[in-house]
Amino acid sequence: MIPRTSLDVWAKKKIGAGTASLTRELISSYQLHKLQEIVRWAYYHSSFYRRLLAGFVETEMVCLDDLCRLPFTTDDDIKQYGLQFLCVSQSDISRVVTLESSGTTGPAKRLYFTPADQELTVEFFQYGMATFTAVGDKVLILLPGERPGGVGALLATAVSRLNAQPIHYGLVHSIPETLARIECEKIDCLVGIPVQVLALARYTGADALPSFRPKNVLLSTDYVSKPIVAELRNSWGCEVFEHYGMTEMGLGGGTGCAAHAGYHLHEADFYFEIIDPLTGQVVSDGQEGEVVITTLTRQGMPLIRYRTGDISRLLLEPCSCGSVLRRLAPITRRKEGSISLGIYGQFTMADLDENLFAVAEVVNFTAAVDCAHNATSLKIAALTTGQPGTSVVEKIHRALAAVPAIFLARQNGNLTVNVKAECCGDLLTPSAAKRAITEWK
Ligand SMILES: [Zn+2]
Questions:
Q1: Residues 238, 262: one domain?
Q2: Average pLDDT value for residue range 60-86
Q3: pLDDT tens digits for 360-414?
Q4: Distance from residue 78's CA to the centre of ligand 1 (Å)
Q5: Beta-strand (E) ranges in 225-325?
Q6: Could you report how far apart the first and last alpha carbons of the chain are, in Å?
Q7: Highest mean pLDDT of the ranges 9-18, 175-184, 209-218
Q8: What total number of domains does the chain contain?
């Protein structure tokens, strides 16, 4: 029997369900109340929202569907009006996160959090981790953010509250060193970035395959492809869980349960909508579209109808773990993340991940095209375990041919593909950034 996600316990506590079971009706009624509260809070405390929400009276929101009458907020709003989003004085802010976006100019995107906002993140981590962390477990955290308020530090606090032992290691630089730590500390759970953890599992050097292997792995920060999950399950015999979050969500938006089918959404702190990215209309339940979030409980910098740019859909069938918390399908692409091959179709980094990581020797790769809107050339630079021979390059070419748009464009002479492969060795170049297909000029 699949254990129910522990996010359920937390949602129930926050929603105030008492001894009653959590139901969709209870969640909806709580969310409506919280939406009315946050719209009022934002309108009266933030100069940005005072302008944005002028003319909208929160008491007119009598059902959740009324939210769609409010305007969206976007990345550009955050960049342009930053501090005007604040509903508290700057002295009440304990954490500012600046998000770098490559290739763009203009003001940086900054998110502001109060201590109470950061506590929401710690609680989310605590209940998300509780799904697979037992009392006394040793949890190795292969994420950045050692300083107070950083992601690694918040996760370590959450793990301590479960009476488990966090070991905040940081990103992986040396594969043998990290594997030795897993062995020496007898690590039960490991939290890391997909390609970094894959490099540990596929390492073939002298110190490969520690006799002690983690029981549970949580992958975070980037897209999790099926071959990576399969590799970890096969090599380590572990369970693999997934997490959905972004800085704008205070890092925590959803977590996968033991049914391993999408992320249970954290509905006590967020209201999620899926919209048509072109028209802005809310789509029918189960249809694909852009994920839009409204923070229900954030004080410092609430986000109302914030367009995340992530494309996904809600999973409608009940989860086999028994939770009524809604589930989001894995994020396979961003609104802007598709590469067009004209009449042959499109492809994304997730398409490449699904096929290239199926090549057993590949531990990471970069992909670059000459033009995102009508690419005629694709360059893949792969890192492999051991010295790559011509057979590995051939395997990568074959894997690329499994992406329909690439196959068709290439067959018709409209796409050239260049593949290079080199041995990854013992050392990784650590990065916590989401991997993306780049464009060269
Ligand atoms: Zn579930």
A1: no
A2: 92
A3: 999 999 999 999 999 999 999 999 998 888 899 999 999 999 999 999 999 999 9
A4: 33
A5: 239-244, 254-255, 263-265, 270-275, 289-295, 306-312, 314-315
A6: 54
A7: 175-184
A8: 3
Structure tokens at 440: 């060269």
User: What number of other Cβ atoms are within 10 A of residue 310's Cβ?
Assistant: 21
Give me the domain span that covers residue 424: 339-439
Q: Which residues surround ligand 1, an ion (CB under 5 A)?
A: 5, 257, 259, 319, 321, 323
Separation of CA 132 and ligand 1 centre (Å): 13
Q: How far, in Å, is the centroid of ligand 1 from the Cα of 7?
A: 9
Confidence of residue 311 (pLDDT cuts 50, 70, 90): very high
Assign residue 426 the CATH number of its domain: 3.30.300.30
Q: What is the DSSP string of 142-194?
A: --S--STTSHHHHHHHHHHHTT-EEEE--S-SBHHHHHHHHHHHT-SEEEE-H
Are both 148 and 240 inside the same structural domain?
A: yes
- Tens of pLDDT, residue by residue over 74-91, are 999 999 999 999 999 999
